[in-house]
Amino acid sequence: MSELTSKTDTVVAAQAATTPDAVLATDAGPAPGKPRSLWSDAWYDLRHNWMFLLSTFLILLLLLIAAVPDLFISGSVSPRDGDLTAHYLQSPQMSHLFSAEWFGYDHQGRSIYARVLHGTRASILVGVMVTLVVSLVGGLVGLISGYFGGWVDSVVSRVTDVFFGIPFLLGAMVVLNTFAERSVPVVALALAVLGWTSIARVMRGSVITVKQADYVTAARALGAGTGRILFKHILPNAVAPVIVVATIALGGYITAEATLSFLGIGLTEAISWGQDISSGKDYLRTAQYVLFFPAAMLSVTVLAFLMFGDAVRNALDPKSR
Amino acid sequence: MSIIDKTDAVLEPEAVGFDGPLLDVRDLHVEFHTRDGVAKAVNGVNYSVEAGETLAVLGESGSGKSVTAQAIMGILDMPPGRIPRGEIMFRGQDMLKMSEEQRRRIRGRKIAMIFQDALSSLNPVLSVGYQLGEMYRVHEGLSKKAAKAKAIEMMDRVKIPAAAARVNDYPHQFSGGMRQRIMIAMALALEPELIIADEPTTALDVTVQAQVMDLLAELQREYRMGLILITHDLGVVADVADKIAVMYAGRIVERGPVHELYRNPGHPYTKGLLESIPRLDQKGQELYAIKGLPPNLTRIPSGCAFNPRCPMAQDVCRTDVPPLHPMTAPDGTELVGRASACHFWKETVNG
Lengths: 321, 351
Prior knowledge:
Chain B: Pfam families: ABC_tran (PF00005), oligo_HPY (PF08352). The complex is a heterodimer of chains A (321) and B (351). Chain A has 321 residues and is mainly α. Helices cover 70% and strands 0% of the residues of chain A. Chain A has one domain: MetI-like (MetI-like fold, Orthogonal Bundle), CATH 1.10.3720. Chain A contains 13 helices and no strands. The N and C termini of chain B lie far apart (60 Å). In chain B, 48% of the residues are buried. At the A-B interface, α1, α2, α10 and α11 of A face α3, α5, α8 and α9 of B.
């Protein structure tokens, strides 16, 4: 029998030596000969998905606007300076691209285009900050309760349930009302306090599935400690659904910030689409564009993040298609 | 490096000059507390393995062979598992009395395990080179680069073609036999003194089974390791093992050197197992099967656990649990290493 073994091996070895790619050729797909992981497969899928490309383009554009809003407007126009005598509710000049009067002026004579551009930063910052905090906190809580189970899980899950039971908007109003000055981190924190539970639940479920896998037992049998098992073996296998939920939720957090600002309990310092939508609603019958442009910008931003999240989900979970 | 020094310190005092068996399992009991009651998976198992020796543990599903192995490795889920009694002596030290940290240092370094299904036992998101290298990085503190070089070397040892080119590949890119070779490489990486292989070839093609078994046997001889081979495949055992322990309902019902046990089984259960192997010279005849099913472990029959299925069962079998009798030849000479837990072992051997 050993003769047979060695023969087979030499045949295989010879094959492999002459054409190293031939062995791998059975794995049809991207870049034959290159190792393929879940992530590299997902990346291959994403690069060929128009939804991903479009949303990525939009998100990159929005990030650039958020970083340097003045880059997109000709001349130096402050979003806070209004000239009531010259520009009170002046209509949009659609032919004047990238100029202060492009989207018209609001009831205080401020350039709507400039305000829309400058409002991007607050929205994106809130969305990204909440997502980061929520993923970190929720992810860790889910990892711990899912892995250790037992009474740890019971306690953590009940705490999660308590937070989950608080109505989102009501909770945010109560928290934010205690602050007189509401900066971006304050609003982000208020949203994160109420938002981490969904991520924690997703992570917990995912970890419970993964921890029963044979490779976790195998890692333990080969001497891996708890930390290594948690972060090297379980986390990379359990994190995909969390990434999907987090990217899709990002759009939701941006909407939530706009909602709070619309209600007057959101940002106090920054320029925000929600505030502009709120003030625009008073002129809905005479000057619809005051409300339209910030609302449209908000919609496009949320859509971009939702599409991005959807594309990521499809790439990470091909079965859902 | 401090981890390694500590490991040695833990094992040194008795390890030096200790000349007993490498692993000695004594009167091991394992039970699982479930909603339906207490499932007694292992009920007083005794076996020992010397360095360089291969012990095959044979038995049906649910006979407790894998649970015993998990208890030795310390990877039993507790709760619901519990070890109410018994000792697992590794080089003269009882592992059940060690701290979790001490046991973790033994796992992988001194005792390693090979699992049944290599695909699910390898982490799908990490490359095989990374997982193999992890053994060296975690236990020996090697750098990433050195660990990868060692991983390639190890992949060569287990005869994976073009090891250097494939070290960054992921488990799903390998065939079943190659994956099992990688598992073997991981288990052997630190040259442990004892390897437990839990049905290492069950998930493989018959042709690949032989290759993997040969490889395992070859490497075992080379490193002079003890090997516990858990299987239900009598064919696999015959070539590789030195001695056999047959398990039924959590107890060892018969043990002995391979060839003698095959030639002349001393327990009706072993006899039944051997007779249920399909044979070419009995083509066309009905294949023998042991009647009935293995017992429910929450309600093990009184007396000999095998009595409801045993063709030789008498009244005494339903009341008295047979001890593991040392066996003797008809002329009274001792059969070295052979024992049978049957009241009627004499009749079984001679009839």
